[in-house]
């Protein structure tokens, strides 16, 4: 867990201060949710609008469906150069291709000696990377460097600081008792050729890359990162400059690619599409990605084309709405075998909610990464819940507790930008002190998702 020190200069203190200081009567104070930013109030749903509510799946069920969809995809493997394997999962055990060390090695700079001293010092010396020198006979010594091959016949290495040679540097005397084999790393001390160093299913971390290289590998067999294409939808979106004339900046395009990479995806592209059904259908059906992510257009407005396009594409809706706030219109569809689409709602925090609810478990299973340990933390402040739905609320860790952040409205990124994670607040809410599950953000120290190697 990240226990950031109180007062960390990360911008979250302003959000926290606002939470503490909102005066009575202010909108902040009046929000029905402590922790700030209420779930936007919904009017009682008339019968005619009850359809979506019936379809909405419980938050935990939706995550389970997404994970199952990922597990159902065929298992894949590729051989890649070491540097490309970072963050992927091994599909074969890492079996040593050599003994390590692969020869008897000096562990120190000093002298290799044979038998009991004093010793006659041979001319020259042995350096790391040099071929073997001749055999040492009993009573002989030769200068040696750390990492150099031990000459045959040598029985020990004496560190430079533990022996003295005479003026002419021809004779050597030890300052202390010399033990047989001291400071010699024997061949195969770490492993023998053929030993299994890591099982298939191990995550390739930087340390694994180092071990694989030491053990003789140039390439590794791993599960390829799922290939993801992002389609950002909306006529109202600008990619530069200030909002004007009802147009706003696209906040999702700049964020999602990096976030998806941190979740283990290979992002093959981000495209911006106008609100045009034909263009969306062509982009979805023509995409070569394993997972298409769309943003916006999930609801039932006049230019919300995701549902009609999925229908036309013959896709199977696996999740069509989730009982979670924000983000309830999120969806998951199977377009064809092993090709999925996650529809993220357009409101930016709702999109983050969809990313963590549906894309994260799907990508994790497609990449065959281990399920991270879930953990809970006590809330410092009460958080009001939605009557029926789970809430995901940005929080920071402070002194063994999590503090709900204020700017947590569906259209706001200000809270999550300073957050360590999202608290999973059950329907009905949670009191101060209640333990709630925390979804770490992939870049926080507490993140247990196996590392975010981008
Ligand atoms: N009658 C109803 N209307 C809406 C409901 C509902 O239940 N009944 N749900 C609301 C909720 S909740 C959400 S979330 C949104 C989801 O809508 P869409 O997924 O169709 O998204 P859009 O309508 O395209 O956009 C919503 C909102 O987000 C802004 N947006 C979109 N893309 C971006 C982007 N890349 N960067 C920044 N902002 C973006 C867009 O301008 C809208 O303001 O539906 C509600 N409506
Ligand atoms: O809150 Mo909507 O929940 O998905 O913006």
UniProtKB/TrEMBL annotation:
Its EC number is 2.10.1.1. Residues 1-55 are annotated as: Disordered. It comes from Streptomyces xanthochromogenes. Pathway: Cofactor biosynthesis; molybdopterin biosynthesis. Residues 229-365 form the MoaB/Mog domain. The keyword Magnesium applies. Keywords: Magnesium, Metal-binding, Molybdenum, Molybdenum cofactor biosynthesis, Transferase. InterPro entries: MoaB/Mog-like_dom_sf, MoaB/Mog_dom, MoeA-like, MoeA_C_domain_IV, MoeA_C_domain_IV_sf, MoeA_linker/N, MoeA_linker/N_sf. Its cofactor is Mg(2+). SUPFAM superfamilies: MoeA C-terminal domain-like, MoeA N-terminal region -like, Molybdenum cofactor biosynthesis proteins. Transmembrane segments: none annotated. This is Molybdopterin molybdenumtransferase. Pfam families: MoCF_biosynth, MoeA_C, MoeA_N. Belongs to the MoeA family. Catalyzes the insertion of molybdate into adenylated molybdopterin with the concomitant release of AMP. The keyword Disulfide bond does not apply. It catalyses: adenylyl-molybdopterin + molybdate = Mo-molybdopterin + AMP + H(+).
């Amino acid at each position: 867990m990240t226990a950031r020190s109180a007062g960390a200069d990360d911008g979250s203190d302003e959000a926290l201060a606002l939470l503490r200081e909102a005066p009575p009567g202010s909108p902040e104070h009046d929000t029905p949710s402590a922790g700030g930013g209420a779930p936007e109030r919904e009017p009682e749903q008339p019968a005619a609008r009850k359809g979506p509510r019936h379809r909405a799946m419980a938050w935990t069920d939706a995550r389970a469906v997404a994970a199952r969809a990922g597990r159902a995809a065929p298992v894949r493997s590729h051989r890649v150069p070491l540097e490309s394997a970072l963050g992927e999962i091994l599909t074969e055990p890492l079996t040593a291709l050599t003994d390590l060390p692969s020869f008897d090695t000096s562990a120190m700079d000093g002298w290799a000696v044979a038998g009991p001293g004093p010793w006659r010092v041979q001319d020259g010396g042995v350096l790391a990377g040099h071929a073997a020198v001749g055999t040492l006979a009993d009573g002989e010594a030769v200068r040696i460097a750390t990492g150099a091959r031990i000459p045959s016949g040598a029985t020990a290495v004496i560190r430079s600081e533990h022996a003295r040679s005479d003026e002419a540097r021809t004779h050597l005397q030890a300052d202390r008792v010399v033990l047989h084999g001291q400071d010699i790393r024997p061949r195969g001390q770490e492993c023998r050729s053929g030993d299994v160093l890591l099982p298939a299913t191990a995550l390739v971390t930087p340390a694994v890359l180092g071990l694989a290289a030491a053990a003789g590998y140039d390439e590794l067999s791993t599960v390829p990162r799922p290939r993801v294409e992002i389609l950002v939808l909306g006529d109202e979106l600008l990619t530069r400059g200030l909002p004007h004339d009802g147009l706003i900046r696209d906040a999702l395009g700049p964020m999602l690619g990096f976030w998806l990479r941190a979740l283990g995806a290979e992002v093959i592209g981000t495209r911006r599409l106008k609100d045009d059904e034909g263009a969306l259908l062509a982009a979805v059906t023509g995409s070569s990605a394993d997972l298409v992510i769309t943003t916006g257009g999930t609801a039932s407005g006049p230019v919300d084309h995701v549902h009609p396009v999925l229908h036309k594409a013959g896709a199977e809706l696996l999740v069509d709405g989730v009982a979670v706030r924000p983000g309830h219109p999120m969806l998951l569809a199977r377009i064809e075998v092993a090709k999925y689409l996650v529809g993220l709602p357009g409101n930016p925090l709702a999109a983050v909610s969809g990313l963590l609810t549906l894309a994260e478990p799907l990508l994790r299973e497609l990449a065959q990464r281990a399920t991270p340990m879930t953990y809970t933390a006590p809330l410092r402040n009460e958080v009001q819940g939605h009557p029926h739905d789970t809430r995901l609320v940005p929080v920071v860790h402070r002194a063994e507790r999590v503090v709900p952040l204020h700017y947590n409205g569906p259209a706001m990124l200000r809270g999550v930008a300073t957050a360590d994670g999202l608290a999973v607040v059950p329907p009905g809410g949670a009191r101060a002190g209640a333990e709630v599950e925390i979804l770490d953000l992939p870049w926080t120290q507490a993140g247990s998702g196996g590392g975010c190697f981008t």
